[in-house]
Amino acid sequence: MSRSDQIVGLNARAGSYLGTNGATDIARHYRNDELISEHTILACELSDRYAITDMLGEEQIKWNKYLLKNGRWVYEYAQESPWASGPVHFLALKNEEGEVIKETLWTKEEMDLYI
């Protein structure tokens, strides 16, 4: 097994939080100038705010920021990064003031299922 950064991402509670509070965009897929599909997606973009350096010290790993319906942003950050053949990044959310959104936190028991 090779050693590398592993990103578990957000938990289901964070997904529910964003599903309830997140703003949406329309993603359209075109082929040869013809609309193939259209989907509603969460309004998000990459952010440097809580970026980390990968385990090899070579690249920056950026996390998403999500636009909320109220016009404010929430940011992914690495809540915990325990080691298992490399860091395993469990993400949660913080608001614009840097306060943790507690309902998006992983529990130790949940993280233990992945390591």
A few lines on this structure:
By secondary structure, the protein is mainly beta.
Provide structural commentary.
This protein is mainly beta. It has one domain. The protein contains two helices and seven strands; from the N terminus they run E-H-E-E-E-E-E-E-H. The protein has helices at 12-21, 108-112, and strands at residues 6-9, 24-31, 34-42, 44-53, 60-67, 73-80, 88-95. It has a five-stranded mixed beta sheet, with no helix packed on it. It is globular and about 45 Å long. The two termini are 14 Å apart. The model has no long low-confidence stretch (mean pLDDT 95).
Q: What is the percentage of strand-forming residues?
A: over 45%
As residue ranges, the low-confidence spans are none
| Count of alpha and pi helical runs | 2
- Major beta sheet summary: 5 strands, mixed
Mean pLDDT: 95
**What structural class results from the helix and strand content?**
mainly beta
Total number of beta strands: 7
What Rg, in angstroms, do the CA atoms define?
16 Å
Ends: how far apart? 14 Å
The proportion of residues forming helix, as a percent range, comes to: 10-25%
Tell me the count of domains.
1
* Shape type: globular
* Strand order across the largest sheet: 1-7-6-5-4
Order of helices and strands: EHEEEEEEH
